[in-house]
Design goal:
This protein has one domain. With 364 residues, the chain is an alpha/beta fold. Helix 1 packs across helix 14 and helix 4 runs antiparallel to helix 5.
Length: 364
């Protein structure tokens, strides 16, 4: 296995609803590093810079306060247990999900006779609560901007460590696909790539305060957008003819990294009622989204039910194609950055040699 001596790739993971644990992406990050190292023959820790955008705390206090007022003190221990089970589920533990399902059979808690179906109420507050509160940004932009400020902070950290022009890969799940799409779209509006669909003409000052003026932080190096279990189709109903999607890759990427070929891949399981294809929405989405990729998520005994929704980025079948595209791009970047690729040595006419992919990486 070789070590990295060249430029690095930036990867941001953005979670969806019900997250209460900052370690939500531990399993996904481990899988991504393992698969990248295997495919590229390069130590992932030297080639990739990975950051998570953990925006759940923005709304967590509001939701906890609501649940306590609904269920009182007797329900607090149940909610703490559900938070723990949700965190374990997000890290890929199917037994934790079954534990949550089992608690859903409880109709009432001792001492709280009128607080029926506590687990289902917890789910409603967290699942719908995140979506409703985030969407309230149309009325109170402070809520919307507070979430985007978290993504901006993660993007800034990536620019500092990976380099201010590092190609960017965003992997988002569930409501996180909406959050990251909006955040990146706002950057593209600010850069003049799109007109605003909702009256917002720039990135909010509180969000911009987290960003420096670099290609990464302007969104110009956006290469890959992987949406997993995405409800973006539902959000698109807000706009005439389902609106205008994010542009992936950003047009500036071709100038900054000519050998890097980005794409938007939407991954969905047909049994996940939250997810759906995006390309059929309109011609603009058909042009923006390279593929609506169907998967059958593991474990198999959950994959045929809507309970599959939390398991996308804990599934090797989802992560391996992401690692493959990153491995291909990293090797092409090193090829371009080498003296021979710049035409200073090894070429008689000053032109760059052909880009060669690493062994084991499928092209196309």
């Amino acid at each position: 296995m070789t070590t990295s001596g060249g430029r690095r790739l930036a990867v941001m993971l953005v979670h969806g609803v019900e997250i209460a644990d900052e370690r939500f992406a531990d399993t996904a990050i481990g899988l991504l590093r393992e698969e990248f190292t295997r495919i590229a023959g390069v130590d992932a820790d030297e080639a990739l810079v990975i950051r998570t955008a953990f925006w759940a705390p923005v709304y967590e206090k509001r939701q906890d306060k609501l649940l306590r007022r609904m269920g009182g003190e007797p329900a607090e221990q149940v909610f703490d247990l559900l938070d723990w089970l949700a965190g374990a589920t997000d890290r890929g533990n199917p037994l934790a999900l079954l534990g949550m399902v089992a608690t859903g059979l409880v109709r009432a808690l001792p001492g709280v006779p009128q607080f029926h179906w506590p687990t289902l109420r917890w789910l409603i507050v967290h699942y719908l609560g995140d979506a409703i509160t985030y969407q309230a940004g149309a009325v109170d932009s402070g809520l919307y901007d507070a979430v985007h400020r978290v993504l901006a902070g993660a993007l800034h950290e990536l620019a500092v460590e990976a380099g201010d022009d590092a190609p960017l890969c965003v992997v988002a799940h569930s409501l996180g696909t909406v959050v990251s799409s909006n955040f990146l779209y706002d950057l593209q509006v600010a850069g003049g790539l799109h007109s605003s669909q909702d009256g917002r003409i720039k990135v909010a000052d509180t969000v911009a305060a987290e960003l420096d003026d670099t290609p990464v932080e302007r969104g110009e190096t956006l290469a890959w957008f992987h949406t997993l279990g995405s409800p973006l189709a539902l959000w698109a109903q807000r706009h005439p003819d389902f609106g205008e999607p994010l542009t992936v890759p950003h047009p500036a990427l071709a100038r900054l990294h000519p050998g890097v070929e980005g794409e938007w891949v939407n991954v969905w399981d047909a049994d996940d009622v939250v997810a759906s294809p995006l390309r059929p929405l309109n011609d603009r989405y058909r042009a923006a989204v390279a593929e609506d990729r169907p998967v059958s998520l593991r474990p198999r005994w959950l994959s045929w039910t809507p309970l599959a929704h939390p398991f996308y980025w804990n599934d090797r079948a989802v992560i391996t194609p992401i690692a493959t595209s990153l491995a291909r791009a990293w090797h092409r970047m090193q090829n371009q950055a080498s003296p021979a690729a710049r035409g200073t040595t090894g070429s008689t006419n000053g032109t760059a040699p052909p880009v060669v992919d690493p062994p084991g990486v499928m092209t196309g």
